[in-house]
Amino acid sequence: MKDRAMQALYLLALDPIAEIQADPNSYRFRKERSTADAIDQCHTVLSNRAGAEWILEGDIKACFDKISHTWLEAHIPMEKSILRKWLKAGFIEKRVLKPTEEETPQGGFVRQ
Length: 112
Fold this sequence. Notes:
The chain is mainly α. The chain is 44% helix and 5% strand. The two termini are 17 Å apart.
């Protein structure tokens, strides 16, 4: 319970930084963004004669399986000792604790 509370506190602190640095046309897993916002952006871009002709949407399988923990520690603006612990904490799948030595598991704290 304490870990989830700490994750929530860090999310509140880091979310504004992530929003400022993120791609303005990225809509997935973004606070205050919706499918309707993405559709509106598509309409805006595609209706412009000088604009794009195509829109790319994708879900890259296993995208987070090989993210370097060293890279994350160097680029995520938070207390490094806590980040290291979270990265190495592992995850539970079917009641079995699995280590995270190099990958970054998804499904941590989810804001509602």
